[in-house]
Structure formats: C-alpha cells, structure tokens
Design goal:
Number of strands: 14
Number of domains: 2
Largest sheet: 10 strands, mixed
CATH class of the largest domain: Alpha Beta
Oligomer: single chain
CATH architecture of the largest domain: 3-Layer(aba) Sandwich
Order of helices and strands: EHEHHEHEHEEEHEHEHEHEEHHEEH
Structural class: alpha/beta
CATH topology of the largest domain: Isopropylmalate Dehydrogenase
C-alpha cells in the first residue's frame, strides 16, 4: 500500500523554505481568527528563516455573494497549486434559505473532494491551564484527555446518493452509505500510522451489528491489525464509543472511523475539552497539500466584536507546519507559545474565569506572536 505523503518524514532538515498558502477567510467571524493565524505563521516564518506567501481565495458564503457559487473553479485551482490551505469557518444564518447546492457548506465538501482530502485529524486535548473548564468530573480530567480522531472524509453517507420522492401523496427520502475496501484500507492506514507516532493505541469505531458497511470495515480492520503487531487495537460500536468518550476519555489514544460517525464523535470530543474555540483540525490526502481549519462555526452572534477565540485557528496553522511542511520544531514553537500565553493567565471570553486576564481576538493573536521563539 502506498504510504500517504503527509506521514513521510516530519522533519525539514533545516534551511530556509518557501511555501505558498491559500487563505480562505470564511464567513462572519472567520476572517477575524484567520487574520490572527496568518500573523502567527508570518511571525514563525520570520523567526525560523522561512518565507510564506499568502493568497486570499473565495469559498463559502463570500464566494456565493461575489461569484454565484460556493466554490469557484479558480479557487479550487489555486488551492491545488498551493502548498497548503488555511480556512476559516463558512456558513451562517443568512445562507439558511438558499438552495442546497448554493449553501456555503457545499463549497467545503466540494473543496475536500477536489483536493482529494480523505483523512481528517482532529485532536481532543485538555490544556492543563483550562482543566476546570471541562464539563467532566475533575477526576476524569485529571486522568488525562489527549486523543486524536481520524475520520474518513470523502465517502459514506455524506457522499452517497440522496433522493427525495413522493408517491401517493407521501414523501420519502433516502440517503445511501457506501464504502469500498480500498477506501476503508486507506483511512485505516492513516489510523495505524497516527497511532505509531503517538502511544501505539488504536480503536476502530463502527456499527457492525447492523450495517454492512461496518461489517466490511471491521473485516478490513482485523486484517490490517494482523500486519501491525506493534499497535494495540480494539473495535468498538459507535454508541458505546460515544458513551466511553465521556465515561473514561483517558482510555483513548487514536480513534479511526467512517465519515458520519467521525463527524458526530469529534464534536462530542471537542466539548469535553472545555471550548470548541481551542480545537484545530487537519484534512489530508496523498499530495501533502492539506486543508487546515478550526472546528468551530462562523459564530455570527459575536462576529465583528473582537471576541472570538483564535487559538483553534492558530493551532490549525501549527498542524499545517507539522503535517504539510514537515516543520516539527516550528510547529512545537507555536504550541509552546499558546501554552505560555495561557500560563500567564490570558483568556478570551469563552474560556474566561475568575482571576484571569481578558483578551480580545486581536490581542490574543498578538500575545501568541510575541512568544514565538522566546
């Protein structure tokens, strides 16, 4: 099996590198957080002697308004020509009434498919400084919450056929889930490789007691497990996995699962960390050009108020440095800067607590920049 490019050597070997980054600012509060992540990436490039070139492209609601489509052909072309893509959240209430093919989220699905991004990596980690913000009991948080969900991104029910019909005055809708063995093997391989770079633990999540797709998934997982004796493996039904994430999250290292299950479980996992504003994600494929975005939405209720948390977007930039550019040291520097700012007591409104210092979006980004390379 071909090894995905993004797992082939995380180290750049030193020296100046020049990278082209396509920037999709997104809708509502998207531009606010993206601007801070770009500032942090620029600062990182300056400190480590690299050159990053940024180019804004349109996708989502802004693209609908300016071009009449959520993903212009020019945007996809420029993303494919870039070394990586940074994305803010898209969508919002003013687009709720538009036709399905014109919704901003359709642009995102088409972008993932066009870039052939089949693996989504979403970490779930509680910052020690913010342990009290987790809704879980203190003893569960104290055991440690640090795992990654690897979600298949271009198959399953989201990309199957969809049909709504009417017969004898009754409406009926159907959505088809479909997976090939090759699609399953591809994402399972990412799961195993991710586990090998962490604590060597992998849980495969399915619904094999009901679904044929999951039975094929479980069959392929068992076959690949036999070839990877260095990884400790378990299979878990999705309903049990949902319960275990809140019952004992410390048991997980890496979870690998199909598209819809991964969508739901990763959102659940994000909530136990204390704030969705802190969580980054990476969507990756074989080319090495990834798509990096925070997991939170466009936050229309606080857009333009300098109140949205930029940390999730900043840490998405850190994932870009690691997975697309092979800049391990630079990625670690960004993560360290975020930790240092939190150590100093700075908080955005979503993670604010008594005795801490309130920072707006721009100030939080500036503080992180100041700590890069310290």
């Amino acid at each position: 099996m071909r090894v995905p490019v993004f797992f082939c050597g995380f180290f750049n070997g030193g020296g100046k590198m020049k990278k082209r980054i396509a920037v999709i600012e997104g809708d509502y509060s998207g531009p606010e957080v993206v601007h801070q992540a770009v500032s942090v990436l620029k600062r990182t490039a300056d400190v480590f002697g690299h050159e990053f070139e940024f180019e804004k492209v349109l996708m989502g609601g802004e693209a609908v308004e300016k071009t009449g489509t959520p993903l212009p052909d020019e945007t996809l072309e420029k993303c494919l020509e870039s070394d990586s893509v940074l994305l803010g959240a898209v969508g919002g209430p003013k687009y709720d009434g538009v036709p399905r093919d014109m919704r901003p989220e359709r642009g995102l699905l088409k972008l993932r498919a066009g870039m052939k991004l089949y693996a989504n990596l979403r970490p779930a980690r509680v910052f020690p400084q913010l342990a009290a913000a987790s809704p879980l009991r203190k003893d569960l948080v104290a055991e440690g919450i640090d795992f990654v969900i690897v979600r298949e991104l271009t198959g399953g029910i989201y990309f199957g056929s969809h049909r709504t019909s009417e017969e004898n005055g009754r409406r009926r809708a159907e959505d088809v889930m479909s997976y090939s063995a090759d699609e399953i093997d591809r994402i399972l391989h990412v799961g195993f490789e991710t586990a090998r770079k962490r604590r060597h633990g992998l849980v495969s999540v399915d619904k094999s007691n009901v679904l044929d797709c999951s039975r094929l998934w479980n069959e392929r997982f068992r076959a690949m497990s036999e070839k990877c004796p260095d990884v400790s493996v378990r299979s878990m039904l999705v309903d049990n996995a949902a319960m275990q994430i809140v019952r004992k999250p410390s048991q997980f290292d890496v979870i690998v699962t199909e598209n819809m299950f991964g969508d739901i479980l990763s959102d659940e996992a994000s909530m136990i960390t204390g704030s969705i504003g802190l969580i980054p994600s990476a969507s990756l494929g074989d080319s090495g050009c990834g798509l990096y975005e925070p997991i939170h939405g466009s936050a229309p209720d606080i857009a333009g108020r300098d109140a949205v948390n930029p940390i999730g977007t900043v840490l998405s930039g850190a994932m870009m440095l690691k997975y697309s550019f092979g800049m391990e040291e630079e990625s670690s520097a960004v993560n360290a800067a975020v930790n240092q700012v939190l150590d100093e007591g700075w908080r955005t409104a979503d993670i604010m607590s008594e005795g801490m210092k309130l920072a707006g979006t721009a100030q939080m980004g500036a503080l992180i920049c100041e700590h890069i390379g310290r």
